[in-house]
Amino acid sequence: MKPRISLYAVIVFTVIVLGTVWFFSMLEDQEPLSVFPATINRDCAPWDGSAFTVSIPVSDGAIIATSIYQSPDIRLPVTFSFPDETMRAGNALLLLPVGVPEPLTGKVSFPRVEQGLPVEGKFDLLTETGRQFKGSFKAEWENQPVYCG
Fold first, then answer.
1. Can you give the pTM of this predicted structure?
2. Where are the domains of the chain?
3. Quick one: which of 39, 94, 100, 120 is 20 to 30 A from 24 by CA?
4. What are the pLDDT digits (tens) for 89-117?
């Protein structure tokens, strides 16, 4: 009976060691996300409802503009996916210094959004040509007046 218990102990110990090594190797492989300074403003949804837009300068004068078609009063973590087939959640565009805005696909997430407080979030977005934008942001509110309707 003792050899069997010893064998089980060795197997359990080996599994624990391998699991620990795998876990810590996964932590090392993750690149830290770049944190981009951003701005956030009240906005209007296409149907004149409440909305907000986060503008993230990324490179060479390009700006990621993510519009969310709901009030900036989000108390729980939320992720928005683009494009939104219903056209009710919002949109994400790459605004270039020259040319037309490019639609972006991917996700933008917020732990919470409250007007007047800095807003943090993460984004992982892609252009039609495959250019990826991935990082996190910290947005400060601008007090631009908005009149919907």
1. 0.77
2. 1-30, 35-141
3. 120
4. 999 999 999 989 999 999 999 999 999 99
